Amino acid sequence: MGNWRIAAGTMREQAVLARLRQVGTSAALVLLLNVLVAAAPNAPGYASEKIDSPARISRASVHLALPPDELPRRGMLVATGNLLSPLARWIVIDLDLMTIRQATTRLADGGGAVEIESERNNAISDDERRNVIASGNEIWSMLDPGSPAFDQPSDRLCSVALFDGDEVLHEVGSDCPRPGFVAVLEALAASGEARAGSRGQVLAPPSAEAPIGSAHLEPDGTLLLRLRAENEDGSTVGHGELRYPPSNPDYDRVMRHLGPIPPGGEVLVPPFPQRWPDEPTPPQRPRS
After folding, report:
1. For residues 255 and 243, what is the distance between their CA atoms, to the nearest angstrom?
2. Residue 50 falls within a domain, yes or no?
């Protein structure tokens, strides 16, 4: 991550922020790729050993109700549903954004796109991230000794999927594969809910647009933004960091953009506006 960091207050950082505001949401993410972001390497220790299993497939071969741009580049999910109901519950971990997302989806009539009926996003801590990586590594490196059988009557289905770039480990059964791993994600989801409730954590940006990253305050008051860069087609291509110490001239503006950040908590980063509300409008060029 060190190669992605831009020293606060440098001309380069200020130029990037100015450009982010000028180009708006979609182009800003592409700009991050060109200026801030290199291809995201594997986090040390995540998916370093992988079993040879039929459940290991390419990302392009994954068939889940969530669209591809809703799936993490590196992370994991558990989805539970019922053959007699169009509803499904999802727990999705994004290891790069350090978020946990809980969503309820409904399959549209006629096989159309899935509809998200409700969702909730929480940040996860460094310790939680390390713990879930350790649990995920057990899935990557070991065959499931008790794979669920489909010869028993059941109307319940459960998917477990782990993502590492273009490689995916996807197991599905009439009961949840890897029950220990599923329990870890369930506990992490419950912990995020409790933490958000006790701290009044901001769970989603006020904008209807998708967040572009997460942010938290360091002990010295510095704002750390972990941002995601995407192509115009919505595919994630990398991640980067921006730091804003209290001395940065844009510090207060960025703070207002993010909203309240609880002590020790994190918030999601809404797309940057094309212009700060308090920024003077540049003079119009005369028409020739």
Report:
1. 12
2. no
Any domain includes 210:
yes
CATH number assigned to the domain comprising residue 102: 3.30.1560
CB 210 within 8 A of CB 231: no
Do 137 and 149 fall within a single domain? yes
Name every residue whose Cβ is closer than 8 Å to that of residue 202 and which is 6 or more positions away in sequence.
258, 259, 260, 261, 262, 267, 268
209 — pLDDT class (breaks 50, 70, 90): low
Question: What is the residue whose two structure tokens read 């890897």?
Answer: 178
Greater model confidence, 11 or 77: 77
For residues 7-18, average pLDDT: 48
Domain extent at residue 31 = 2-36+202-269
Q: Is residue 43 part of a domain?
A: no
> Do 193 and 217 reside in the same domain of the chain?
no
